[in-house]
Each structure stands twice: as C-alpha cells, then as structure tokens.
C-alpha cells in the first residue's frame, strides 16, 4: 500500500494532463481486474466481473490535481499563470513548481502585496530565465505546471504529500481491488479526470458505466487547528459521507457502509462537508440515477503542498471499500 | 376545492427533506393509490406513476412536481439534548428562532429552535444578521436519550399544520412544491372519465431544492415527448421587486416565458387557457427559472417543456400561503392541455 501511495504521489497530474498517473495506475491495477480501457476524455476504466452480473458497482477516484497554466511571459522572463482548480495562492506560494518537460520554477508573489490582496494574478513563476526569449525556450503559453511532488513521513503513522487529494483515493481503490477475495457484482474501478474543475470526467464515465450503485473515494477536511464546525477527525477512521455541497448521499449506501464497518470492526465516522463537491454527485445523476455514496479519507490542509493524513484512516477506508466490493449491497 | 384542501393537508405533512425523500415515499404511494396503472420509486428519491392511454405508439406527457422540501440535517448531538444542524436548501435563518421542527429519527420527535430573549440581547444584536451556526434545536431529551433516536445525518423539517385563511387562502409548510403535486392529482381526477390522447407519466421528483436531481434522473428514465413542469412562484407582496408586480394571488396559474422552456408548448398552454376561460397570468424569466424545467428540457435529446407556476407568498418559510382557486385553475389547465395534445404541438 505504502509503495503504491509513493508511486502515485511521485508525478504531477493536473486536470486535463493526467497521462503520467494514468499509466502508473493502469500498470498497478491490471493484475487484479479483467480489462482496462481509457475513454475519450482520458478516464481509466478497469472492469472486474462479479459473481452476480445483474447489478453494477462503480468505484471512482479522481486522478487530477489542481495546478497552473501559463498565460503570459513578461519581457524579463517572469511567467504569469492562471489557476486550474481551486488554488489557494497563499498556500502554494514560495514552493517549487515543475512543468511537464521537467523545467523547475519558483512560485512567487509580487513584492509588497498585502496579505488580503494575494490573488492568482499576483502570482508568478520564476524559472531563472533572464528574458522572455530565454524563458520561451523552456516554457510556452498554455503549458501546465504544479507544485513539485513531495512525500514525507511524519510522527505517529502520519504522512504529508502534495495531492493526496486524490492520489490517496486512487491508492485505496487499487488496494481494495488487490485485496478483494471476491467481487459481489460487476465492478468498475474508474479513475476520473478533471474532477477539480467541476466533476467533468466522472459525468461521461458514469454515463458509459450506468451503475446501479456508486461509491467515490476522495479526501475530506479533517480537524486542522482553527477549523470550525468540522466533525471529522484525523485518526478517527474512514469517513462515511452524509453530504457535501454537490450531493446528499443515498441513505441505502450510508446504512450499508455503516453496517459493513460495524460487522468488520472498521473504525468509522460520519462526514458532513458544507463546501466542496465530489464525483459522487455525477454518479448519482447519471442516466436514471444510482444509489451513491462516498468513503472519505480525513485529510488536513487540503489543496496545499503538504496535505496530511493518517495511515490508519487510509487502511480503514481500504478495508471498508474491500468489504463493499466483496459483499455488495444486499 | 374541498378535495384540494384535503390533499393539500396530506401532502404538506409528508416528511421528505431533500435527499431523504425515502422517508415519505410509502405515504406518497398511499396518497396516489388508484391514480396510476403502475408506479415505482427511484434511487434518487422520485416517485414515478404511469397511466397508459391504451393506444399503440402513443406519445408520453410528463407532469412534474417536486416532492422534496427544504430543511436541515443533524450535524452534531450536544450535551443537554441540543442538536446542531446544517441547512438543506435555501433557508433564511432569521425566521428560525423559537420555531417548531420535526426530527425524523428512529421515531419522529418535536424540537424547538433556540432563541435569545430581548432581555438578554446585547445592544445592536438585533441588527446583526443571524446565522444558522448560532442556533441549536432543543429537544428536551438528554444527550444519551437523544443518541438512541437521532444520528448524524438525520433529517429535520418544519412543523406547521395547515391553516385556512380567508378567501380560499391556506397557509402551511412545503406548499413549495407539494401544492403542485396536489394540482396534478386533482387534474388526473378531472381526466378520469376522459379519453386520453397520450400516455401520462407523473414524476414527484426528489432533490429539486439541492440541484434538480430527481428530475434529471427520472426524466431520463421516463423519456417523455413533452412535459409540464409545475412549481410555485413568488406572488407580489408590497416590498417585492417591481417586476413581480403582475404575479397576483388568485390570478390563476402563471405561465412562464423563458429560455428553459419550449415557446411552442408555452403558447399552446396560453391558448388552451384562453379557449377554456381559465384565469392565468404571464411571466417572463429570461434565463434560469430556478425550477426543474431546465433539467427536463435538456433530458436525453431534449423535451419540449412548459413551466406552469402557482402563485405563493412567504416561500421557504413554515407558512407558505397559496389560494385554493389558483390550485384548481392549475388543475384545469393541466387537464385541458393534456387533452389538447391530440393534435400534437
């Protein structure tokens, strides 16, 4: 599991440019499924035939992360960027960023900017180029970059990395596919693109799968210091989603996940997220609709270069998903 | 009118907070007994009832009203038997203090939103906007007792028995949009002895207040050829914006002109109303209607949809006011429009 996580966090995968991660995931999950294909948008769909083929389960984790796109290069070689997804400028600033061709830059903020005025248009990337011409040898308008990959072990079984949102979801889905001793219904492990820019990849993929049951695996905000009104705690176990701002989960799925957690002694808690959406929503609304829910991995400092999680929670999420895949809904 | 009042009371009381409509579905099925040839309940919380006209190759008319209501879900069970909640759908927290709610746990219990009496308020406190986070629901139970009944995620709705006002006006909760469900059932009663030119599918859709979810999925399932979307609309009150001036209580159903509806079907609805002497009013909504009409219109290859609205006051409060005569006129319009589809649109 840890190896999978390290692998998945080792590459950039900004919305719309998920190729590198997709190749890693495909290789990792292939031994545990019957077939793997990539759709037109770039979603990776891995299929495992179930004991009962009358019903379909879709498991979704998103491959993409937030990042930056080059909008303009100044005469002095400084690169201006716009955000892809929900960038928190203050959390990303003064970290190294990497482009697809390996070019490294430093994300800076215009000098003398008041803290409350730090918006995306005050950010720039300094790749060391002394002029526009020099910069253009490495980077052109439209190129994508993201904060450089990182993975650090903290105390107490906790880890920090960039883009645990949602590499950890991808790792949990792969881990469950690996550990499941049986597959109750036809199961589609879908690794979606462009979640961070509006749940875009999960919409067509859910329409092509047309699931009866659906579960997303994503991160949720845990009790970071100063965080108010958040009931999810780091180390508190797998978080069973009740709602977020995109979805109200089906009671059938919430009850089923709760029952499976209790039967298997898996530590769990409930999640009500008042901001932010997940692929759960698009799966719920595909075609005539599905019974949809979400298993969330408690995470601190989401959308920063140092998202923190607890490996015990990750294992609990993987066990819960495995139990669902093995036993189905009935 | 009495029949409409009876149905209005029954539908108003349904426990169906958006996303948790399953709690009320058994009762919906009971209320719909005898109206449909077949029915089903979908995974996204909609009730679908079907009536066949018996003609081979007949087209299908969809009648939509949403069955969900705004409300809350429990986010925390606190010491002293208090519940913290988050809102489901658009709620103005200023109307909440000291109001009654029903908590749909293992059993249904009553609660009261906390309030701060004027004696205890600091200077200027009245002027400050109230937030839902500042309120809790008092149940009278102990925390331990409450944990037996309620869990995180338990839905909570307004408690507000229907009352009758003067001139055919009634007040109660969730007339947005249950009163339209009532108008549909009343229309089906009017159609009972008539020869139907089309199949009728009714969707009492869930999840409207949280993003048109039931309509998105149920319309896909039904795949209708045309649709009448029924919702409520804000009637003019003295402090409302001037463009709402023409929507009057008692003026009959409001027919919407918008980019989210079919102009052809809309004009047919207006003509049908005129021809049959049904009181009606017109309203222009340039883009979004804030109703299921957009979700139905864009379902599959597209569905010609008309939006018909019942005028209502105090939307999203525990005392929404509608007039029985407007409901009756809406039923008549649905009935006549359905019959007119013999000639297509």
Descriptive account of the structure:
The complex is a heterodimer of chains A (330) and B (345). Chain A is an alpha+beta fold and 330 residues long. Chain A is built from 9 helices and 18 strands. Chain A folds into 2 domains: 2-65 and 162-327, Zn peptidases (Aminopeptidase); 67-147, Elongation Factor Tu (Ef-tu), domain 3 (Beta Barrel). The model of chain A has no long low-confidence stretch (mean pLDDT 96). Chain B has helices at 2-12, 22-31, 143-149, 175-191, 213-222, 263-275, 293-297, 324-340, and strands at 38-41, 47-51, 60-66, 71-78, 82-88, 100-104, 108-113, 137-138, 155-158, 163-164, 169-172, 199-205, 226-234, 254-258, 281-285, 305-312, 320-323. In chain B, 26% of the residues lie in helices and 27% in strands. In chain B, helix 1 crosses helix 4 (175-191) and helix 4 crosses helix 8. The two termini of chain B are 31 Å apart. The interface between A and B is medium-sized, with 24 and 26 residues.
């Amino acid at each position: 599991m840890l190896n999978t996580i390290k692998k998945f966090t080792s590459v950039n995968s900004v919305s719309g440019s998920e190729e590198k991660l997709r190749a890693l995931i495909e290789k990792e999950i292939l031994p545990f499924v019957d077939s793997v294909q990539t759709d037109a948008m770039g979603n990776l769909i891995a299929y495992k035939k179930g004991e009962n083929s009358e019903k379909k389960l879709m498991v979704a984790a998103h491959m993409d992360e937030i990042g930056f796109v080059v909008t303009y290069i100044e005469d002095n070689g400084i690169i201006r960027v716009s955000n892809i997804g929900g960038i928190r400028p203050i959390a990303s600033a003064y970290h190294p960023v990497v482009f697809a061709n390996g070019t490294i830059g430093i994300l800076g903020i215009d000098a003398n900017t008041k803290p409350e005025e730090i918006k995306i248009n005050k950010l720039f990337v300094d790749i060391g180029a002394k002029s526009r011409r020099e910069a253009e040898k490495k980077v052109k308008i439209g190129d994508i970059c993201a904060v450089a990959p990182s993975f650090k072990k903290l105390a107490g079984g906790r880890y920090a990395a960039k883009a645990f949102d949602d590499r950890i979801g991808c790792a949990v889905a792969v881990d469950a596919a690996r550990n499941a001793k049986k597959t109750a219904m036809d199961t589609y492990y879908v690794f979606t693109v462009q979640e961070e820019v509006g749940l875009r990849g999960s919409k067509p993929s859910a329409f092509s799968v047309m699931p009866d049951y659906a579960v997303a695996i994503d991160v949720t905000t845990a009790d970071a210091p100063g965080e108010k009104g958040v009931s999810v705690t780091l180390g508190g176990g797998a978080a069973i989603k009740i709602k977020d701002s995109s979805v109200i989960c089906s009671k059938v799925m919430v009850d089923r996940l709760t029952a499976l957690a209790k039967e298997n002694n898996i530590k769990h808690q409930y999640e009500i997220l008042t901001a932010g959406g997940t692929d759960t929503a698009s799966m719920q609304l595909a075609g005539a609709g599905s019974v949809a829910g979400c298993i969330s991995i408690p995470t601190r400092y989401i959308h920063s270069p140092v998202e923190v999680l607890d490996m015990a929670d990750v294992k609990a999420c993987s066990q819960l998903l495995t139990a669902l895949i093995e036993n189905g809904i009935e | 009118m009495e029949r409409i009042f009876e149905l209005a009371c029954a539908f108003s009381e349904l426990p169906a907070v958006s996303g948790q409509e399953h709690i009320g579905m058994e009762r919906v099925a009971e209320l719909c007994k005898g109206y449909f040839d077949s029915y089903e309940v979908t995974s996204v919380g909609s009730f679908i009832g079907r009536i066949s006209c018996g003609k081979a190759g007949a087209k299908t008319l969809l009648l939509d009203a949403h069955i969900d209501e705004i409300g809350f879900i429990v986010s925390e069970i606190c010491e002293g038997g208090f519940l913290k909640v988050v809102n489901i759908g658009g709620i103005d927290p200023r109307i909440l203090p000291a109001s009654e709610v029903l908590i749909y746990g293992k059993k249904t219990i009553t609660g009261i939103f906390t309030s701060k009496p004027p004696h205890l308020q600091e200077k200027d406190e009245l002027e400050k906007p109230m937030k839902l986070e500042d309120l809790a629901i008092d149940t009278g139970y102990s925390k331990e007792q409450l944990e037996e009944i309620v869990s995180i995620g338990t839905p909570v709705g307004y408690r507000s028995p229907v009352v009758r006002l003067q001139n055919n006006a009634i007040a109660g909760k969730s007339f947005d949009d249950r009163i339209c469900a009532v108008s549909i059932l009343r229309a089906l009663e009017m159609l009972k002895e008539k020869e139907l030119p089309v199949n009728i599918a009714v969707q009492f859709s869930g999840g409207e207040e949280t993003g048109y979810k039931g309509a998105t999925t149920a319309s896909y399932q039904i795949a209708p050829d045309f649709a009448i979307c029924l919702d409520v609309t804000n009637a003019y009150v003295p402090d409302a914006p001037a463009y709402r001036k023409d929507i009057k209580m008692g003026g009959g159903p409001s027919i919407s002109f918008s980019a989210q509806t079919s102009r052809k079907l809309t004009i047919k609805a207006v003509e049908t109303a005129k021809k049959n002497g049904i009181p009606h009013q017109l309203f222009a909504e340039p883009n979004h209607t804030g109703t299921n009409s957009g979700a139905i219109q864009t379902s599959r290859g597209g569905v010609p949809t008309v939006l018909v609205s019942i005028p209502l006051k105090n939307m999203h409060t525990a005392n929404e006011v509608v007039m029985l005569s407007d409901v009756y006129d809406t039923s008549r319009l649905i009935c006549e429009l359905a019959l007119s589809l013999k000639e297509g649109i």
